[in-house]
Amino acid sequence: MPHAENGSMVNGEKNSSQFLAHVSSYPAVSDTKEAIENNPYGKKGILLANEGYNKVVAPVLPYAQGPYGYVAPYVQKADQLADSGLTKVDDRFPIVKQDTEKIKNSILELAFMPLRMASEGKDYVLSTYGNEYKKCGGNGYIAGGKALITTGLVVTSDSLSWLADYLNQKKEEAKETAKEKKDAAKEKTNN
Questions:
Q1: How far apart are CA 84 and CA 122, in angstroms?
Q2: pLDDT tens digit string along 110-132?
Q3: N or C end of the chain, less CB within 10 A?
Q4: What is the mean pLDDT of residues 83-103?
Q5: Do residues 108 and 116 make contact, with C-beta atoms less than 8 angstroms apart?
Q6: pLDDT confidence of residue 140
Q7: DSSP strands (E only) in the chain
Q8: Helical axes 100-136 vs 141-190, angle rounded to 10°
């Protein structure tokens, strides 16, 4: 999968923006750009934009060179700040550097997680009810009622057991973090 590099061309000129080069290096952005370039409507839009640039902007550019010299350092600094912001985004959200298909699959997995969890929960409750119904023995309303009550108790018991395990795990993590902070504070005061 080809991805943009630092020397990409924009309107026939070499791209000198660190920010634009950084954004173009993301696989999702690069793939989107490629898809637009390969789409007939996208090609037409790019062609119209280039014609507009050549007819409107290009003739005015020589007159803007003087004033641009005054603001160029500020534009360069803004470009550097934007690029460093993207670097922080890369560090904080590493998925942006992943392939487009992996990003798409992650989003779909996250979007359908509630449905999957609801289906698994329903299956769990129904299988628990079936097991309890068999244990109660019988085919009447009384056996069904007993199975319903014991199913509620079993599901509640399992839920509380899971919650206790989760809270104990978080408690241990909190203890470790507190110990690390305490040791770091002691070390800082000793220095």
A1: 47
A2: 899 999 999 999 999 999 998 88
A3: C
A4: 92
A5: no
A6: 83
A7: 9-10, 13-14
A8: 130
Number of helices (H) and strands (E), helices first, in the chain? 6, 2
Confidence of residue 15 (pLDDT cuts 50, 70, 90): low
Q: What angle is formed at CA 55 by the lines to CA 62 and CA 24, rounded to 5 degrees?
A: 80
| Separation CA 60–CA 46 (nearest Å) | 20
Residue 99: φ, ψ to 5°: -65, 155
Per-residue model confidence (pLDDT) at position 52: 92
Dihedral class, residue 12 (left if φ above 0, else alpha if ψ from -120 to 50, else beta): left
Q: Check residue 14 and give its pLDDT.
A: 61
Count CB atoms within 10 A of the CB of residue 29.
Answer: 17
CA dist 143 and 132 (Å) reads 9
Q: How far is CA 135 from CA 61, 73, 129, 132, 151, in A?
A: 85, 80, 10, 5, 11
What are the residue ranges of helices labelled H in 13-57?
Answer: 18-24, 27-38, 40-52
